[in-house]
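Repro:
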Amino acid sequence: MTSKSAAAAARATVYGYPRQGPHRELKKAIEGYWKGRVSADALRATAAELRATNWTQLADAGVHEVPTADFSLYDHVLDTTVMVGAVPERHREAVAADALDGYFAMARGTQDVAPLEMTKWFDTNYHYLVPELGPDTVFTANTAQQVTELTEALALGLAARPVLVGPVTYLLLAKPAPGAPAGFAPLTLLDRLLPVYAEVLADLRAAGAGWAQLDEPALVQDRTPAELHSAERAYRDLGALTDRPKLLVASYFDRLGDALPVLAEAPVEGLALDFTQAAAGNLEALAAVGGLPGKRLVAGVVDGRNIWINDLQKSLSTLGTLLGLADRVDVAASCSLLHVPLDAAAERDIDPRILRWLAFAKQKTGEIVTLAKGLAEGTDAVTGELSANRADLASRAGSPLTNDPAVRARAAAATEADARRSQPYAERAAAQRAHLGLPLLPTTTIGSFPQTAELRVARAGLRTGRIDTAGYEERVKAEIQEVISFQEKTGIDVLVHGEAERNDMVQYFAEQLTGYLATQHGWVQSYGTRYVRPPILAGDISRPEPMTVRWTTYAQSLTDRPVKGMLTGPVTMLAWSFVRDDQPLGDTARQVALALRDEVNDLETAGTSVIQVDEPALRETLPLRAADRPAYLAWATEAFRLTTSGVRPATQIHTHMCYAEFGDIVQAIDDLDADVISLEAARSHMQVARELAAHGYPREAGPGVYDIHSPRVPSPEEAAGLLRTGLKAIPADRLWVNPDCGLKTRGWPETRASLENLVAAARTVRDELPAT
């Protein structure tokens, strides 16, 4: 096919769409089901209605092929586990008794059975449920969900393409099941898994699928020759099947590198590649392998992970270059639109001039359709859209919001010395122990406590004017009093104020910093029914006034025990925001760090002796390619130290990380130079403690003994067992006792019981320690 005919064939498509609905209907239905207020049939009906609405809106906007099987009641990787029958042994009885309840048990656990481990989906803030596979895993096809959703879309008269996690990525994301032999690699199960994928593809073809998409984002990471050979073998075998739809293999989040020629030569009908800034190099690499003659190329030229408008002219230029490299070029976002909010038009509180800089899922769909039209019909067909786009891009580039000379001058003046503590850790530790007087195995929590119904009602009342600021603050004070009183009675050593005044650990600070924008409806799924509203980091950052000192000081006035000041660190402020894309991330991080440094110093001046600066996103934001990591870790760790290094030696600096694979960044954790780090460890059975020990980590650590993402209450014996495991790796004088993460999403009854058991476990193990 010539370039001209390839352009004429251009179509618009997407890989996935936000699941929650405009008013988070899915979240409400699922949580209603968990509480017994919504029936299983009603939950399924809500999900089906949301799917149909999404597909219809996409088709009405001009999308030619809608995705199916991207919708999930909890997580699409968990859905894949169900699809291939890889249910862990401990959950099989529950799944057999009731498929829906068993599904949620795998995700959340029960009082008697632990859930699957949860971790970040590549370098995003989405969490997936980690498959557990062993040598005895038997795969069986279960395509009920995938066939049902395809049938629903086809019944609406739409062209539909099922989107599945590919077999290689599924196995690479999995972990060895409990009891698996040391060194077992789930990828060795590929020959066992491929026949199940063949059956899935046959079922989809029988249900009417013309195309099926297999997502292989794991191939954008550094892969060994053996892993690349597995990918080659997988798509050789799947491509050789006769009873299947046409296959579109998709990658995103970074460049494919050595995997590109493997997929380009595979006997599949199409590839979907990321051509945004995040995947720089894919265009040149594709040309270097001779393109995709005779194949379909789906070009991800619209950023599916950030919310800034696309440079349409630039994207059309990229698309024009691609025309000669494939038989057919279609237009898409770089990845699923799951990672952005639904509709920017719903935002009423953002300046309309600034709102024109933003594109959420609905607006990105419009950009994709415009680009497909421009590619197919020529730029004359989209003249108006191009003109408006140029004006909006110019408005953003020239805005005073994006350029504050004072902020830029301060950031430029910061020195390496500003990012170093005044004394080495050993001297600081001695000063801190003398000042704080804590016992061995000190107990603490990560920061937040349950946000009660009364507090949520008060916050809603403040927004709507039903109560005034004074009334709301009295409610906050009452919540803080309750949290402090409970911790004192329970016997926790280092207290927190509970963060009752905070709507979100990033948004709360963003609303008080210049350069940030907050949304009202910009919800994005983090995991399951947990949705967040990432703020928009739009301009240069500064702190007009203290943000946390008042409430921390109030909490300290209620107790003689130390109360931690709680801040969100600069890397997490970037990672859990939609960050500006018009300057290097390191420059933005330095601006945020200096604003937070002012807050840390004000907390210390107000008498706060323990200050926690959370960086749960440090691992999450780690580049997917090893070659890109040193530069990232250099500015990321510097930003943390710049935030925390202005305090006296006796002030103890804590940090916290959760739900990530920490082995890759142990040196970076060390480089933060925090006095104490708390980390998620309960679901992974203290793996991070062993990793810290193997590295020789010299400071204090609190690997979590209470999994807060499950409603189950750990017994004192269970928590004590984890502590004993932790003590095998971390000496007692450097081991802290804490939950995995904050308690905001938990209820008070389970929180009380769990923390009482945690303290009891600490006392039990403390009594077992040899006398000193």
